[in-house]
Write a structure and sequence with these properties.
heterodimer, A: 285 residues, alpha/beta, Rossmann fold, 5-stranded parallel beta sheet, two-stranded antiparallel ribbon, 41% helix, globular, B: 328 residues, 2 domains, 7-stranded mixed beta sheet, 12 helices, 14 strands
Chain lengths: 285, 328
């Protein structure tokens, strides 16, 4: 069961999310490549998962009753790595090895390289299917863990995504929760220009899913949405989380050019300064 | 003569040799596995009858998943089940799986080292009347190129059953290659099945060795017998494990015979022909002739007519042996 957030815990989570953003900027600067916008946009959701929602044990990553958090759009792994390190899965210093030879932190996550990663991902459209397999196994084994899967909005273009959505609806996988990072950008531009997705809500409803829409940069609202589906028995749930890509760094926010780009030294310096001073946004989110 | 140690079907050269579809062995093994191991689960993409998973589905409905015509979804769900402790068998036609869903297999099963068994059905031009769209003739090449995958290509229904049972014991990805039509029974229940290349037709002074995989092993045996009657001694080896390859036996047999013929219902490129050539080029260069599809798609037709037209039959194998001996 996920607990309600009190003001103190919320403040702590917001500070942690900001800390994670700073780590992301430092990692990407050191790596010289990687995906800035989505990683920053998802900082609040990953922080909420690792520090409040998930039943997990960083000292025992294979604990069989842990909740599973599957990342479908593997390219935002810098934020996952940052939050995992902050949780104690591995030393913070190791974040500097991202994308380098001999590192456990592959450019796109590789399950067998790093304990705590549930799947290998990066090629889009495959995460929901794998999460379905994990959720089916939970039902077969009569386990109570929940399976969460994060997917991007751009990967809703993939046929495999809808194969999975159809299957989960048919099989009423109520132990599965999908979070879509609805940040409206993908590599070639805004999603509604590249390949229109709206109405996403109506599409998922038509496939027999429970659909919630939240502000993905508001931790309280996100946690409430997660809590609200715990007792739902009939359907899988999708939480369409509207996030601001590049959140926290003014010159990256909502710019699709930052989808697959890392900051240079000057940009990183400016970004870190904005994050250090909180730039006003986190408290208003 | 037939290798007496392998307890092969002694009626193999008789006119009324018993025939059975290789895919039937898969279906029988799944039911046995279902009884023995509660972690065995089965998925199919709208092909439960023709991939022979129907009996498993009827006996163990809670462990059977119908995914519809969605091969990417099928194998990625299988990957999710596997990393959660299940032993999934995902069955479809090989043109779709591992054809259509290659990258999904690559990422979620091979690179991920997920314990999934991919059953590719309707391989080769033996598929017949459905035509080239449904005849998988490049699946071995595709799967051979993926690191960490075991590949079984059984020669008859008995071997298919043993390969399927064996695959469940392997903790890692396995590709199982099956064909549709009834083909002669070559082995028996007692014939050993393991990762080694076994010599099915033995002779004292072979002038060539024929390496065959799948049901065409029968045609290789027919050719060996005809060659013997014509005064040419050859040995015939069954390569039912394509990967990891039994390199030592391949080299030893090539050393003894000094000439090699490979036989497969598959493209020579990347198939058994490619495999044997790679092994020998590296360690013991030997003249080779290749019987298989020569960079071409086939067509609709009766399986036996296609096998003759595309030069995969005993006559083609016989001719290839004659040709390679001249080069040795």
């Amino acid at each position: 069961m996920v607990f309600e957030l009190n003001a103190e815990k919320l403040k702590d989570l917001e500070l942690k999310a900001n800390e994670a953003r700073k780590l992301v900027i430092e990692m990407l600067l050191e790596a010289g490549s990687g995906h800035s916008a989505g990683s920053l946009g998802m900082a609040d959701i990953f922080t909420a998962f690792y520090f409040h929602i998930l039943k997990h044990d960083p000292k025992e990553p294979d604990w069989s009753d842990r909740d599973r958090l599957i990342l479908s759009n593997g390219h935002v792994c810098p934020i996952r790595y940052a939050v995992m390190a902050m949780s104690g899965y591995f030393p913070i210093e190791e974040l500097k090895t991202l994308r380098k030879t001999d590192s456990r932190l592959q450019g796109h996550p590789h399950r067998t390289s790093l304990p705590g990663l549930e799947t290998t991902s990066g090629p889009l459209g495959e995460g929901i299917s794998q999460a379905i397999g994990v959720a089916l196994a939970a039902k077969l084994d009569k386990k109570n863990y929940r399976t969460y899967v994060i997917a991007s909005d751009g990967e809703q273009d993939e046929g495999n995504t809808w194969e999975a959505v159809m299957f989960a609806g048919k099989n009423k996988l109520s132990n599965l929760t999908l979070v879509i990072d609805r940040n409206n950008i993908q590599i070639d531009g805004f999603t509604e220009n590249v390949m229109p997705l709206e109405s996403l809500k109506a599409k998922y409803e038509a496939f027999n899913w429970n659909v919630l829409e939240v502000n993905g940069n508001n931790i309280t609202g996100f946690v409430d949405a997660i809590r609200s589906v715990e007792k739902l028995m009939e359907k899988p749930t999708v939480i369409i989380a509207h996030t601001i890509p590049g959140m926290g760094v003014s010159f990256m926010e909502n710019k699709f050019a930052w989808h697959g780009k890392a900051p240079n030294a000057e940009e990183a310096k400016l970004a870190l300064k904005q994050l250090r001073t909180l730039q006003g946004r986190i408290n208003n989110a | 003569m037939l290798n007496p140690d392998l307890k092969l079907n002694q009626k193999i050269f008789e006119e009324d040799v018993e025939e059975k579809a290789i895919r039937d062995g898969f279906g029988e093994a799944l039911v046995e596995l279902g009884k023995e191991n509660p972690n065995v689960v089965v998925l199919t993409g709208d092909l439960s009858e023709s991939t022979r998973v129907e009996e498993f589905a009827n006996k163990f409905p809670e462990r059977f998943f119908e995914v519809g015509v969605a091969e990417q979804n099928m194998v990625a769900i299988a990957a999710g089940l596997a990393i959660s402790g299940k032993i999934p068998f995902a069955a479809s036609y090989a043109v779709f799986s591992p054809g259509k869903n290659l990258e999904t297999i690559r990422t979620t099963i091979a690179y991920n080292q997920a314990n999934v068994k991919i059953a590719g059905h309707h391989t080769g031009i033996l598929t017949g009347a459905d035509g080239a769209t449904h005849q998988a003739t490049e699946d071995i090449a595709i799967m051979r190129a993926l690191p960490g995958i075991t590949i079984f290509s059984p020669c008859d229904a008995f071997e298919a059953k043993k390969a399927t049972l064996e695959s469940a014991k392997i903790n890692g990805p396995v590709y199982l290659r099956f064909s549709r039509e009834k083909t002669p029974i070559i082995t028996t229940n007692e014939t050993p099945f393991n990762a080694n290349v076994h010599t099915f037709w033995v002779t004292k002074n072979p002038k060539a060795v024929i390496f065959a995989t799948g049901y065409l092993l029968y045609y290789a045996l027919l050719a060996a017998k005809a060659l013997e009657e014509a005064g040419v001694e050859v040995s015939v080896a069954n390569v039912s494990t394509i990967k990891p390859a039994d390199e030592d036996t391949v080299i030893k047999l090539a050393e003894d015979a000094k000439a090699v013929v490979t036989v497969e219902d598959h493209q020579i490129t990347g198939g058994l022909g490619g495999l044997v050539a790679e092994i020998l080029a590296k360690k013991h260069p030997t003249p080779i002739e290749f019987v298989g599809l020569k960079d071409t798609f086939a067509e609709s037709g009766k399986p036996k007519e296609l096998i003759t037209k595309y030069r995969l039959d005993e006559k083609a194998i016989y001719d290839a042996v004659k040709k390679v001996i001249l080069r040795s």
